[in-house]
Amino acid sequence: MDQKLQMLLDTVRRLVRRGAYPNLSKVLAKSHPADIAHLFSYLVPKEQQILFNLIENTEMAASVLSELEHSTGAFLLEQIGRETITEVLQEMPYDDAVEIIRNLPEEIAEEILTTMQDEHSEEIEQLLQYAEDTAGGIMSTEIFSLREETTVQQAIADLQQAKDVEMVFYVYVTDAHGHLVGVMSLRQLLTVSPATQLKDVMVTDVINVRTDKDQEEVAQLVAKYNILAIPVVDEWNKLVGLITVDDVIDVMREEATEDIYKMAGASEEELLYGYKSFKVAQLRLPWLITNLFGGVITGYLMWQFKATLSEVIALITFIPVITGMGGNVGGQSATIVVRGFATGRIDLSSLRQVILKELRVGIIMGAVCGITVGLVALIWHGNPFLGLVVGLAMISAMTVAASMGALAPTFFKRVGIDPAIASSPFVQTANDITGILIYFGTATLFISHLH
Amino acid sequence: MDQKLQMLLDTVRRLVRRGAYPNLSKVLAKSHPADIAHLFSYLVPKEQQILFNLIENTEMAASVLSELEHSTGAFLLEQIGRETITEVLQEMPYDDAVEIIRNLPEEIAEEILTTMQDEHSEEIEQLLQYAEDTAGGIMSTEIFSLREETTVQQAIADLQQAKDVEMVFYVYVTDAHGHLVGVMSLRQLLTVSPATQLKDVMVTDVINVRTDKDQEEVAQLVAKYNILAIPVVDEWNKLVGLITVDDVIDVMREEATEDIYKMAGASEEELLYGYKSFKVAQLRLPWLITNLFGGVITGYLMWQFKATLSEVIALITFIPVITGMGGNVGGQSATIVVRGFATGRIDLSSLRQVILKELRVGIIMGAVCGITVGLVALIWHGNPFLGLVVGLAMISAMTVAASMGALAPTFFKRVGIDPAIASSPFVQTANDITGILIYFGTATLFISHLH
């Protein structure tokens, strides 16, 4: 937290403690909505509620709300009267209002939509039709667009009067039927003669997305073409919305966090629960229990080799390193592939090369680690055959692990399961099992030399 | 890859095969630089080289180059003549040129800087002074700024003439000494009367960063305040550069990938090496070898309990599940904390709460998993004491693992080591060791009941 925010937090806390609400109200009115929203993450629900009620300006309240984690926003709204909710939501950009409504309990959501003015509720209900993580689900419907016959002079005049349109940088141009046909930047508008019609100067090759485009792909497009906003069209190419770069930034951060959490078997959803341990535990447990049974199966396989083991108890000393290294290497390969899918760096056409590379890398690293651990075994237990068994097992286990780590996300992507969530428990269990089988298999083969 | 790009790729490959270079040249001239850059990732070096040389327009070549992975860009430049390099680099925005020069072998970089026109090389050398991952290192120096006495009319006229300034959305206002004093959006400019001076209408509270600000924090600011560009000032508050949102998107993606890779013990650097397996293996091995010795230490500890083990061989069946689950839970907690640091969601003031939460979550999940695995042990080996030992060990191991997972990144952050890279091998080894000690410690305690 930077100093400025720390000072604001201290001030706010002091004023809340003292009950100096009029002063607090003034402090809030002077702060940036994003800063107030940031403060909320350091406050307990009671303080959040007091603070939010002290924001006098409805527009300001709406801005704060759109900057909040949407779950916190939904929680706050549940605490205040239905009328106030409706008022505040009406002040917000529709796309933000929709996200908050999605997080509200269904009955409250419906009640609010009924009390809302028709013009607003219709817009919002239409947006609610789109799936949450598609272009339609995140787009804003307040677009500044003009007809292709408009003159530049008229366009500038319209622009000066446009209200409620946040962040205009491009003017989108449509034909008589609302089809997207062109685009111009604000700056281009200023550099052509006033009498020109837009259709004569506009760029006709507009990068755009359909409403059902996945939000992650939208983000990739915006990042690739370095654009500030991307227009959204329906299936008939009619302009229906706009996704601005600030929304794209949110999407990218969200998707990255989601992937990172998923790879560790956690879920971004737990951010909604803050410090509620039981809820968080509940979210993480299914993945852990899956792993637990993987571990039990591995243990069961070891049990099958108990004769070998009780003959050569030294064998147990390398179990952790062989299963552990398999897990590490498999995890690396899986991570590279999962992240590659997410950023678009790896796709089905480059996949074969990537998998072959991971296999080669696995062999090389397996050789290095196998020789290392083989030498350790030789020196420690003074038995060259033990060194050989451990080394061979390590090389094979790591090679198999690397290939499995690269193949598993591919397989899950093909069958339509999110590779980020499925890969890790699968890869880990599969690696443990093959590691153990290879290790004890080799050991049983050389058993007469291991005594 | 989308259809359009697939078609372009097919066309390009066909034309390369046929040697139809003039046609290829025409196809390239009509394509978007970002699309050409994207194509490069599917081509072998030889094809990349042919293609790049066929881009006739230097400006286009510069655009393609700035869209490429910077390593691919540096590679391509090494293949073409020094003069052409210099020409192309001079056409690029300085910030992109600087990034490419940073990736070139030092002698080539110096040679280029000497041949470059002084006006360009001076700018570039100045930018090279800033550390790569700071605001100074990523900013563009082509800023559109005006003096505070300028009238709105004059400002619009200046804007119409401004060239080489990519993506103007804000006009930055400076005083006579070049200090940043205000900002106006392009749209605001259009809505005030032409004779007004900028100082009377500008917003004076400009969000800005110092040149030495970490790029990750810059990205967090831009995301937080939903701005399209952030001005960069030196230590005397003089305006020296600008970071636009498209650079921020690159930074965010880069940092997310870096964190994800690091947590798995890989490095983003390996993307530079493509399919070169030895280089990639070299990058991943140090982390693996660290883990390897962690595994050997765990094995050594198990060896200390060989008496217990050879008495009750059934104990081995739960080693994988106990060390495995510790690793999973520790990994989850570490991931939550590392990602929290990266996104700014967790900072030192909220850390205590987070660690306590992870501890509670660890206890809850430990209890659930402990009971589950205890029952498995009881049913499988028919010994209630074995169930008790396994269950107790699981609960303690998971609780310790969760706390260690949350504490390790905190510790590494405090001592200035990147938590993303250090946490995993440390947490894993520490968890394995405590898991084994707790497990065999408990087992030794109950040994008389375990037969």
TrEMBL record, chains A, B:
Subunit structure comment from the entry: Homodimer.
Pfam families hit by this protein: CBS, MgtE, MgtE_N
Transmembrane region(s): 285-303, 315-338, 359-380, 386-412, 433-450
Keywords of this entry: CBS domain, Cell membrane, Magnesium, Membrane, Metal-binding, Transmembrane, Transmembrane helix, Transport
Family: Belongs to the SLC41A transporter family.
Function according to Swiss-Prot or TrEMBL: Acts as a magnesium transporter.
Domain CBS: 139-201, 202-258
Entries under PROSITE patterns matching the protein: CBS (PS51371)
Membrane association type: Multi-pass membrane protein
Name of the protein in question: Magnesium transporter MgtE
Domain of life: Bacteria
SUPFAM superfamilies with a match to the protein in the record: CBS-domain pair, MgtE membrane domain-like, MgtE N-terminal domain-like
Subcellular localization: Cell membrane; Membrane
Molecular function GO terms recorded: magnesium ion transmembrane transporter activity; metal ion binding
The species this protein was found in: Syntrophotalea acetylenivorans
Lineage: Bacteria, Pseudomonadati, Thermodesulfobacteriota, Desulfuromonadia, Desulfuromonadales
Record InterPro entries: CBS_dom, CBS_dom_sf, Mg_transptr_MgtE_intracell_dom, MgtE_N_sf, MgtE_transporter, SLC41_membr_dom, SLC41_membr_dom_sf
GO cellular component labels: plasma membrane
